[in-house]
Amino acid sequence: MSDAKARIAVLGASGYTGSELVRLLLRHPRVEIVALTADRKAGQSMADVFPQFAPFPLPKLGTIDEVDFTAVDVVFCALPHATTQLVIKKVFDAAPNVKVVDLSADFRLSDPGAYEEWYGHPHQALDLQKEAAYGIAEIYRDEIRKARLVANPGCHSSTAILPIVPLLEAGALDPETIVVDSKTGMSGAGRSAKEAMLFSEVSEGIHAYAVSGHRHMGELDQEFSKAAGRPVKPMFVPVLSPMNRGIYATIYVRTTGATAEDLHRILTDFYKGAAFVHVLPFGQVPQSRHVRGSNMVFLGVVADRVPGRAIIISTLDNLVKGASGSAVQNMNLVMGFPETEGLEQIALMP
Amino acid sequence: MSDAKARIAVLGASGYTGSELVRLLLRHPRVEIVALTADRKAGQSMADVFPQFAPFPLPKLGTIDEVDFTAVDVVFCALPHATTQLVIKKVFDAAPNVKVVDLSADFRLSDPGAYEEWYGHPHQALDLQKEAAYGIAEIYRDEIRKARLVANPGCHSSTAILPIVPLLEAGALDPETIVVDSKTGMSGAGRSAKEAMLFSEVSEGIHAYAVSGHRHMGELDQEFSKAAGRPVKPMFVPVLSPMNRGIYATIYVRTTGATAEDLHRILTDFYKGAAFVHVLPFGQVPQSRHVRGSNMVFLGVVADRVPGRAIIISTLDNLVKGASGSAVQNMNLVMGFPETEGLEQIALMP
Amino acid sequence: MSDAKARIAVLGASGYTGSELVRLLLRHPRVEIVALTADRKAGQSMADVFPQFAPFPLPKLGTIDEVDFTAVDVVFCALPHATTQLVIKKVFDAAPNVKVVDLSADFRLSDPGAYEEWYGHPHQALDLQKEAAYGIAEIYRDEIRKARLVANPGCHSSTAILPIVPLLEAGALDPETIVVDSKTGMSGAGRSAKEAMLFSEVSEGIHAYAVSGHRHMGELDQEFSKAAGRPVKPMFVPVLSPMNRGIYATIYVRTTGATAEDLHRILTDFYKGAAFVHVLPFGQVPQSRHVRGSNMVFLGVVADRVPGRAIIISTLDNLVKGASGSAVQNMNLVMGFPETEGLEQIALMP
Amino acid sequence: MSDAKARIAVLGASGYTGSELVRLLLRHPRVEIVALTADRKAGQSMADVFPQFAPFPLPKLGTIDEVDFTAVDVVFCALPHATTQLVIKKVFDAAPNVKVVDLSADFRLSDPGAYEEWYGHPHQALDLQKEAAYGIAEIYRDEIRKARLVANPGCHSSTAILPIVPLLEAGALDPETIVVDSKTGMSGAGRSAKEAMLFSEVSEGIHAYAVSGHRHMGELDQEFSKAAGRPVKPMFVPVLSPMNRGIYATIYVRTTGATAEDLHRILTDFYKGAAFVHVLPFGQVPQSRHVRGSNMVFLGVVADRVPGRAIIISTLDNLVKGASGSAVQNMNLVMGFPETEGLEQIALMP
């Protein structure tokens, strides 16, 4: 690496994952934000849209068309799905050597059929889909290092994949009976003005959503099946909890003979040396607030009262490790920076 | 019934279930509160302890010893478990004809061995345990009508039992694979000053607790096993969500051949005419806020993407239908009052 | 009154004040809801819009044009300001004997000039404006009893007027130095889908709004000036606190010689016998949660450390006593029902 | 400065200001935490008490007696008031050259009489009280640089002093009519297990506290009087808002002739170049969430509708700029580090 800072463009900077990227990148020692876009808010300053940035110098919000991608090293793409694939195609057409970390769902499913099933239309950039690396650094570190395009995973997906994939790979779980109950805070739904997202519709209550099928299921199926070596379709329900940040999955598993302690040992071994995954002592239960604002994942393993059953708990901050933090982590890998650079903030609690 | 109002004593009025009883009973047309106790706060007025009652005339808080139970028709007992059984024994010794609705756990488990296993000591009032009716009116209405002592169920227990018992009785579910993920608000933990219950330890985050074994499991085992006709031990994890009121259980089931629509039909039939249980149209998902402050239970049934699997959702207000509301409902049955009397408040939302 | 129930129409039933009216009226023994309107949601059931009403029989949502006002006794109007005056004009044209309780701002300001100043356009129903009674029952009970049209006051307005008007009338306060800092919950802003009202923009933080001029100021000016006998323009800032319900005003006053105890005595005397205003013992501080869900106002008076200064605290639930509860109270007066009918719910806490 | 890191002891690390110090210091490039104390939790690890620190190496919690202060460069003291003065005396007896930043109230009031009045007992370390610098860096930077002992101010105090002192110094305000309505989040009350601090007693409501006199008033009196050149006793009420972090003061002022724009200009000039104080454009209103987790203060100035009156709004995070962040800022001054070192985190929003 030369001493020059990497030049960053953030496409879609007016949503929460966009602002979270800016929060992290502004304090990252090896990068410089050179372009921010937000089509509907083009012309405004970032401080107009997110007053917390008022004290800091940042480029104005512009349109995607205004960005000169040949003068950019890394593009973070925080745009809605479907439009994303077209935008990224254009970006690579204009600047084939740029690196792209995509926070949308567009390149997460490697099977075009699965994409079509979950997203309701054929993929429009199949070549790119083929080359995209699935951005869970702890599992696909080598692929990501070599990738030009990284598909940052869904927040529910990362939360469940991180503990379950190593256990399936080890053959320790019955893949037929996995149940993932995944609680999430509100910020994961973004910043669009919808009645169902109003304070009075979210606070002081809780409810499941997308019960008959949430798109992150497609990622669980893909990664669980790959790890198990055969098709796996877990039960999965996302639940909206009245809080801003945090995914908290309680995962119910049955083993193929292993004890809960065995599961704990497998995870402890797998994540030895992983900077951002912390496995709690056996039997301890994590809380989402202990990772809030940080790039950490906390994992807990507890024995059920019936031998051969166990509860695995996984929690992360959906805006950090579940989105923008892992995107920065992926950029670090892609760019050859130290993996933890710019991501060392400790959780804010309370 | 004569025109005279039933005279009520509330033992343990300084906790949240106690104050909720007072809130409901003050507006019940057929009762009169004649005694309130709270040993550690004896001598104070209810308004000192719960300022919302300041405008209303109420007896002072006293000790249990000061209550003349022969001048009381119904005793609500909202005391800690274990001491409760001794107190109720004394109450019946002094006044054998009084009716008791007990909100503690002391008389919920009919098997003395199960009681000892879950509560860690032998039961001290086995005779009373034998005669207690388990207070889920929708299932045990006839037993409750004849009972002198009603054991009001746990809040997690009611939430899961109401939808699952009819399905097990119908033989529609595989009893081996039931998973109950039961989210709760904070008020269920009562009003004791504990660090883990502080605002800053509960808000803006979520976490499971008692993962290796929660006492309400004993009730699930008892009622599920009775309904299934063989021993059932569901997986069950309670999760604390940052809100005051509400239990919200997402229940993962596999059927013995029935479709999800069949499950919905069984529940709709079972609860036809039940004033406090509302089964949503097939596929709809309830929210806890829509029952907050009311005595209602909302049930939803959604098909899983894999045939033979379904998600059942059950929600109620832990302080009302999960505790004090069902206690009043049980009193109505025991006293021959209309079952819905004093319980017709509509949910407060927002 | 005959035994027949009063027939009620609620115009604008799909907002929070509308649903709160329905919550209260469904349990009011002397009324029957015969029409509900919500122009943009016409054709839907109330349960589609507010699932908490699913268990209860209610008319479908329709348009205003579909209502036969000659078959209605009381109209509650919960529509946006400005359109309201035109709607009510039409209602009276069609049915001159109907009673109208208007929850909008359209008829609150008796001076057409003040209306124009605060609302930015000339009033379009000046005759009706003249006959409207200002709906604070505790102050204008007699006018309301005789009125055909009641202008229900703003929520911030009621909160500050109830304690301050009696003190100004008694000549006890310096009218030049009144400061009203009025905290409110989110539900007062209604149910429209705006970015600033999203959970993530409201929770875990606090902020003032409309600092340079909030329309409820017009009501404070009008009522304070009338009470003081000369023009009064208090300082007033509304502040959005992360909660659903509650207005909580801390009011800073200087006296004309009276002590804080004197102020307390004036208020205690003034509200002797008022069912819905509770003056706490001198020096005690109310909390908004102790009136949540009820029609109560709690008032506190505390001496400042400097003689001649005092802090007055007033709190109510913005959706009940601040809107729909006082609207029902006004209907009770207008219809000759007991003033407290249908309004006796005790606060829900927690 | 040599290259060696400054060795830090944190006394009282088991409270929220203690954990916030650890959060900041762990990421401060010029310091190393060598001792953490918490008398009642001595022997535990920091991760036992605050699980968010589990991934990081930290000394075990010990007792104060176990600390060798001669091997320490800076002591942060986050202990209860009154005991603090005795502890710090001992620290300086053992190690006269150590630097102490005290987060308690013990050394904030320079007048022993005022201390006795507000804290109810004579001060026990008058010599130290004399030498202590009052730790608002933006006002007392030079004194702090030279100090051995810095008295970190109260959170309400900093919030009001930062905007008001420059205006009083400029002679722009009538000192007789200042009203400070200061909303605070819960974390300012610390982590003690008290009933009034439970989630269910704090969420979904708001209330004033210490209305008849809060100790931070003593600091306002001291600093306002010094700035005005004559005794000033503002009206001040703290209000608990249901959120974790943030102080939000709405301050009502009358000028001595200046316009609101003049006030804005004075503040803009005063804070030119201040890294942590951001004055918003005239008329704009800050929100507490935009400084959450950061060391920033946001100030807003809005004209009242009556000339000669204005509303000043000041907000900061009570745990950062209101406590541990300003403590680190003071340490930076005392140690000759760059003032912003370790404090450059951007607000976490949402």
Automatic annotation (TrEMBL), chains A, B, C, D:
**Enzyme Commission number(s):** 1.2.1.38
State where the protein is found: Cytoplasm
**Span of domain Semialdehyde dehydrogenase NAD-binding:** 7-147
| One Gene Ontology molecular-function label | NAD binding
Cross-referenced InterPro entries = AGPR, AGPR_dimerisation_dom, AGPR_type-1, NAD(P)-bd_dom_sf, Semialdehyde_DH_NAD-bd
Listed GO CC annotations: cytoplasm
Alphabetical keyword list? Amino-acid biosynthesis, Arginine biosynthesis, Cytoplasm, NADP, Oxidoreductase
Keyword NADP (UniProt): yes
For this protein, what reaction is catalysed? Answer: N-acetyl-L-glutamate 5-semialdehyde + phosphate + NADP(+) = N-acetyl-L-glutamyl 5-phosphate + NADPH + H(+)
Q: Which GO terms describe its biological process?
A: L-arginine biosynthetic process
What SUPFAM superfamilies does the record tag this protein with? Glyceraldehyde-3-phosphate dehydrogenase-like, C-terminal domain, NAD(P)-binding Rossmann-fold domains
Q: In which pathway does it act?
A: Amino-acid biosynthesis; L-arginine biosynthesis; N(2)-acetyl-L-ornithine from L-glutamate: step 3/4
* Highest taxon above the source species: Bacteria
Give one Pfam family, short name only: Semialdhyde_dhC_1
**Chief site of localization:** cytoplasm
Active site annotation, chain numbering? 155
Do you know which HAMAP family this protein is assigned to?
ArgC_type1
Protein family according to the UniProt entry: Belongs to the NAGSA dehydrogenase family. Type 1 subfamily.
* Role noted for this protein: Catalyzes the NADPH-dependent reduction of N-acetyl-5-glutamyl phosphate to yield N-acetyl-L-glutamate 5-semialdehyde.
Task: Indicate what this protein is called per its UniProt record.
Answer: N-acetyl-gamma-glutamyl-phosphate reductase
Annotated source species: Xanthobacter flavus
What gene does the UniProt entry assign to this protein?
argC
